[in-house]
Amino acid sequence: MRTTYQRILVGVDDSPDALLAFQYAVQQAKKDAAELVIVSVLEDDQMNVYQALNKDYVHGERDALIQHLQTYQHQAQAAGVADVQIMTATGEPGETIVKTVIPDVQPDILIIGSLAKHGITKHFGSQAAYMAKYAPISVLVIR
User: Fold this and answer.
1) Cross-referenced InterPro entries, in alphabetical order (predicted)?
2) In angstroms, rounded to a whole number, what is the distance separating the alpha carbons of residues 19 and 117?
3) d(CA 113, CA 124)
4) Which of 28, 41, 80, 112 is 20 to 30 Å from the Cα of 51, by its Cα?
5) Where are the domains of the chain?
6) CA separation (Å) from 68 to 24, 76, 98?
7) What is the DSSP letter of 103?
8) Least confident among 48-62, 91-105, 127-141
9) Burial class of residue 65, CB neighbours in 10 A (0-12, 13-18, 19+)
10) Is the pLDDT of residue 120 over 80?
């Protein structure tokens, strides 16, 4: 039995595994004629207290992230995915995607890379494992 998805959520952070996850999600969305939602989380733990309190700084970081996500959006559209949305969130990536993004987007599946780009979260045992364990939907972890 083949599963067809109507809405696919893919998390991106520019790590090699996330780029593979994005490519896989694009191909799956194209094959299923599914909506593709691309999300990236602005990690507030990477900002110092002064940056976090500075609304102009946070707004600038979010604007830069949106602009970067638009490049992913254009790539997916160029590959033949008709319905591509982008979204940002702020917080701890795993928890934010599971508790906020998934309930808002209501995707059929979450596709993520196994390794993150920065810091402690670079190890599989953290963000990807958290999402695989706690997400209320199927999670595909790409290596």
Assistant:
1) Rossmann-like_a/b/a_fold (IPR014729), Universal_stress_UspA (IPR006015), UspA (IPR006016)
2) 11
3) 9
4) 112
5) 7-142
6) 19, 13, 22
7) H
8) 48-62
9) middle
10) no
Tokens of 61: 């970081």
pLDDT digits (tens, 9 = 90+) for 18-75: 999 999 999 999 999 999 999 999 876 554 444 444 444 444 578 888 999 999 999 9
Structure tokens at 74: 């254009």
What contacts 82, CB < 8 A, 6 or more positions away? Answer: 33
How many CA within 13 A on the CB side of residue 18? 23
Structure tokens at 68: 């970067």
Fold of 7-142: Rossmann fold (3.40.50)
Beta strands in the chain (DSSP E): 7-11, 35-42, 84-90, 109-113, 138-142
More confident residue, 62 or 133: 133
> In whole angstroms, how far apart are CA 102 and each of 7, 38, 54, 79, 97?
11, 12, 28, 25, 6
- Average pLDDT of 119-132? 67
